[in-house]
Each structure stands twice: as structure tokens, then as C-alpha cells.
Amino acid sequence: MRKTLIVTNDFPPRPGGIQAFLHNMALRLDPERVVVYASTWKRGREGAEATAAFDAEQPFTVVRDRTTMLLPTPRVTRRAAGLLREHGCRSVWFGAAAPLGLMGPALRRAGAERLVATTHGHEAAWAQLPGSRALLRRIGESTDTITYLGEYTRSRIASAVTPAAAARMVQLPPGVDEKTFHPDSGGPAVRAALGLTDRPVVVCVSRLVPRKGQDTLIRALPAILARVPETVLLVVGGGPYERDLRRLADSLGVAPSVRFTGAVPWADLPAHFGAGDVFAMPCRTRRGGLDVEGLGIVYLEASATGLPVVAGDSGGAPDAVLTGETGWVVHGAPPPLAARESADRIVTLLQDAELRRRMGARGRAWVEEKWRWDTLAERLRSLL
């Protein structure tokens, strides 16, 4: 029986989009054929208890390293090779190609027959810097397949690896659970709880960090309120940028029209998407192209919920939008242009219920056609 060793830093209970991607894929593989080797979420009793409780619920074997960050050191590589042999694994899936894919040659010598390395946004950044570009090339040479999220990440990573490695690249984006994210996910109850039942709602679900563009939405609010006066911006998620966002809303005089929910449990996210009339996250590229959006699964989750989307033009975010059909892509920067474009698109949607309905329905159908987890998991099984 061919087993797969998944080697990753990105695994729950550590929160994040990549973590959810890896976990959802692992759950759709045969649990008798999966062994996960992952880092520890965080040190201390609370982190250890949360990790142990999560691991005990999984249908497959999870082995935790003592470190909070796996790196391709000799010790970690020996541990991975030992697990490969102990469990009789013949294939390896690196949850993030960089840097764990550098262990490829050693795991090949230990008996791995198939090596698959998945890339996200940060590998596209690696492709731009000489030192990390060379390491990415080594990963491409030593693995059987490098996967990519969309055209943006594919083109940049392909430029860093050999032509032979580029030819072996296969698209493997995260999927959407269309049974969880759907138009009847409980949005009205969230609106009622927040006192927003009769108000137009623009919702943004994401970590609160500068790249995501929540500040652009706040800067756009004065123009939106001038044309749709009762609009509320519902900011769902937690993160280090919240204090700055609150200060910005105060300085622009729009604080009464912005609601911050803080971090929301994953099980409650579909209802929070459903609380919106429009989903908007005008993400932007930062740090000279080193901080970009890899794909933006939240746009697809919003589409599955039946919402039109307004996305930023950072990295692979446009890959998650059918322009003019499921929503629009706007400039993520500079701030004045981004705010003006975002306001115009959002107002157009808020003022046209039929357009919202049509874009939401097209987005839902697109998710069902292309982005279902089961379809993408089958692609992973074939690669392994």
C-alpha cells in the first residue's frame, strides 16, 4: 500500500489559509495512507493542549516536531527520513516547497519514489531574489512536480527553475467546500445580531494586515456613504493592523459605519460571508513584490456564498475572479486610486440588486465547476 508523508509547517491548529488548504487536502486522502510530519503550533501548555486535542481528532497519523518552525536541517531531515521508512511511505508532499523541498534528495535516498512540492505566494517572492532563486531551482530539480496556485505564481516560479522543472508544473489551488459556503449559510442571523438587518453591508473577511487592503475600504467609505448613506463596512478577522484601522476610521469620521468583529471561529465564517451584500478585499502588493496575494481563497468562498466580489490586483488575486462576471478587480495601490475605484465598484453593486444577484449566481456556479475540494483532491492523488 503506497503511503504519503506530508511534511509541513502549515497545519492546524495553527491558523491560516495555507493551513486550511493542507488540512482539507489531507482529509480527502485515504487516512490509512497518510502520515503528517508537522511543526508544533506554539510553545507552552496552552499551545500543547490545543495541538494534542486537534491531532487526536484526525483520522490519520500526525507526528509533531519539537520546533515551531521546520527547516531542512540535518536533524529534521533525518527525522523525516526515519518517518518515511518507519511508516513505509513511498511518496512525499511538501506542504510548502520553500524551504522544505530542499530535503528532497535525502528523502529520495531514503526510499521516496514521488516528491511533490506545493508553492504559494512566498515562493513567487523567492523567485525574485538571487539567493533564494537558486534554492528554488534546486527544489525544482529534485522533485517530480511543483504545483502552483494560478498563472501569476506559475510564471514567476517557472522563471526561476529549469525548463524541465517548469514543464512538470501542475496547478493545484486550494478548494472551496461548496456545502459549507452557500447562499443559505446563516447571514441574516449575523446581520440581526449586529443590528444590520436593513442596512447595505460590505463585508471583508481576512487577517488584518496591511496587504489585505482593509484600510482602502475605510478610505473609500466617505465616497460610498455619500451615495449609499446607510452602508456599513463589516470587517471580519483579527490581526495586528486592527488598531491602525480603527484610528483611520476615527480620523475620517466613518467609525460609526465600520464594525470590527475580531477573530471569528472557522465554523462561523460562512454566516459572516453571508451577512454581506458585497464582498470586497482590495489587496495590494508590498515590499517591492515580496509581499503579494498568492490567490485569495476568500473571493471564492464569497462567490460560493452567492456574493459579487471586488478584489485587488495583487499577485494571483485576479485568478479568483471572472472579471465582469463574478466581480471586478481594482487597483490595490496607490491609496487614492485604490479607494476611488473600490468606491465606484462597490456603489455600483449596492445600487443594483439584479447585478448582485447575477454576479453571485455566476460565482456560485463557477465554484461548483472548478473549485470544489473533491475535484482538486483527485488531482493531488494522481500526482502522488
What is the structure about, briefly put?
By secondary structure, the protein is an alpha/beta fold. 44% of the residues lie in helices and 15% in strands.
Give a structural overview.
The chain contains 17 helices and 13 strands. The chain is of the alpha/beta class and 384 residues long. It folds into 2 domains: 3-172, Glycogen Phosphorylase B (Rossmann fold, 3-Layer(aba) Sandwich); 187-369, Rossmann fold. The strands form 2 sheets. A 7-stranded parallel β-sheet has the order 3-2-1-4-5-6-7. Strands 10-9-8-11-12-13 form a 6-stranded parallel β-sheet, sandwiched between helices. The protein is globular, with a radius of gyration of 21 Å. The relative contact order is 0.12. The mean pLDDT is 95.
List keywords for this structure.
six-stranded parallel beta sheet, 13 strands, 384 residues, 2 domains, seven-stranded parallel beta sheet, alpha/beta, Rossmann fold, 17 helices
Structural class designation: alpha/beta
Q: Count of helices? A: 17
Order of helices and strands: EHEHEHEHHEHHEHHEHEHEHEHEHEEHHH
Q: Quick one: overall form? A: globular
Largest sheet: 7 strands, parallel
**Parts with pLDDT < 50 across at least 5 consecutive residues:** none
- Overall tally of domains: 2
Proportion of strand residues: 15-25%
- How far apart lie the N and C ends? 13 Å
Domain Glycosyl transferase family: 194-366
GO molecular function: initiation-specific glycolipid 1,6-alpha-mannosyltransferase activity; phosphatidylinositol alpha-mannosyltransferase activity
Family: Belongs to the glycosyltransferase group 1 family. Glycosyltransferase 4 subfamily.
Domain Glycosyltransferase subfamily 4-like N-terminal: 15-178
